[in-house]
Write a structure and sequence with these properties.
single chain; alpha+beta; 3 helices; 2 strands
């Protein structure tokens, strides 16, 4: 198996006949991976993406924050509660 790590942070690996790949030692060190580390695998735009659960949560938070269209001074919870109160008031005109 080839485990050459290139300067751009990419590596060349070979899939063996059992479908396994070896993550090069330098990449494991850079990522802080050790025996028993758990990674989540996904396919995005034809690429295999491996990330820890913590990395996934951090990425999701970043993506949500970047796409948030609400008032930055108001929390999501406050906006949701205001929406629910408005809906409830519209359903019950006596309140």
């Amino acid at each position: 198996m080839s485990d050459r790590v290139e300067s751009g942070g990419s590596s060349e690996v070979v899939v063996n006949r059992d479908g396994r790949i070896l993550i090069p030692a330098q990449v494991r060190r850079d990522l802080g991976l050790h025996a028993g580390s758990t990674l989540l695998l996904s396919v995005e735009d034809g690429r295999v993406v491996m990330e820890s659960r913590e990395q996934l949560v951090a990425r999701m938070r970043r993506e949500i924050a970047e796409s948030w269209q609400g008032d930055p001074q108001t929390s999501v919870v406050e906006e949701l509660l205001a929406d629910r109160r408005a809906e409830a008031a519209a359903e019950d005109p006596d309140s």
